[in-house]
Design brief:
- This protein has 262 residues and is mainly alpha-helical.
- The chain has 2 domains: 4-99, no CATH class; 112-259, no CATH class.
- Helices cover 41% and strands 8% of the residues.
- The protein has 10 helices and 5 strands.
- The strands form 2 sheets. Strands 4-3-5 form a 3-stranded antiparallel sheet, with helices on both faces. It has a two-stranded antiparallel sheet with strand order 1-2.
- β3 (213-216) and β4 form a beta hairpin.
Length: 262
């Protein structure tokens, strides 16, 4: 029961042995639980617990765990439990989200900080390029504002669960799940991953502009387009050097006009 400050002082002084566990942004709660289970020196309390039981123990009964834990490196000493680390990550996300929400741009299409967190998780999964996060958020915010579907593959993948084998097929885009943003209007019901502060900030400070589409260039970055015709040209261009992880939003097979979204 040391205070965090006392614990750090003791660590710096070398009085207390400590270890670290790292949770990576863009990973899921299931990934986080697997990381904790594989962490040596950490007392395991939650190994056989359901997600629901963990959330109840954290004072968050009934909440879906996805996205509610902050990805970071957490130091711990020999007498700490996995539940203690989960509590720290949960509290940290709550405070980061609250800080960012207070500073948000006006006029965003979110009814709550939780909806911004959902958007942040999509941004986190869509791009690893720091300079693009606000642009990606801008595309999705404008789509929401115009009543267009988000049509983003990472949500589809999340909804597929264990059925995802590394590829999305056209039938997957047609299959109704609560997370299939080619089929549902608005945001999915929960986050799809753990977003870090930069993605949360982007969701709450989307870049201005008129882009409504983007396509992966194949090098990790994206080409943004403001019209469907421009987007389809970009898709053709970048499909030439297509890789297995090629993605666009929306996918090139989707005929938007057929869905009455033009």
């Amino acid at each position: 029961g040391m205070t965090p400050v006392a614990m750090i002082d003791a660590m710096v002084a070398g009085d207390v042995k400590h270890w670290a566990v790292q949770f990576i942004e863009g990973k899921t709660f299931a990934d986080m639980r697997a990381t904790l289970a594989a962490t040596d020196r950490l007392e395991k309390k939650t190994t056989n617990w359901s997600d629901e039981r963990i959330m109840t123990a954290l004072g968050a009964e009934g909440r879906h765990p996805e996205g509610l834990f902050y990805p970071d490196t957490y130091l711990f000493t020999g007498n700490e439990t996995d539940l203690g680390i989960l509590q720290r990550a949960y509290d940290r996300m709550a405070s980061v989200l609250e800080e960012e929400w207070q500073e948000r741009e006006q006029g965003l299409p979110y009814e709550s900080p939780y909806e911004a967190l959902i958007m942040a998780s999509i941004v986190e999964r869509e791009t690893g390029v720091a300079g693009e996060r606000a642009e990606v958020a801008g595309v999705f915010v404008r789509r929401l504002q115009k009543g267009m579907r988000l049509q983003t593959d990472p949500t589809v993948i999340y909804g597929m669960g264990d059925a995802y084998d590394g590829r999305i097929r056209s039938r997957d885009l047609r299959t109704h799940t609560p997370y299939n943003t080619y089929r549902i209007d608005g945001l999915p019901p929960t986050p799809i991953a753990m977003p870090a502060r930069a993605a949360i900030h982007a969701a709450l400070h989307p870049a201005e502009g008129d882009a409504l589409y983007f396509v992966a260039r194949g090098d990790g970055s994206h080409k943004f387009s403001s019209t469907l015709a421009e987007h389809q040209r970009a898709v053709r261009e970048f499909q030439l050097n297509r890789r297995d992880d090629y993605r666009s939003s929306p996918a090139p097979t989707t005929d938007e006009s057929a869905e009455g979204q033009d």
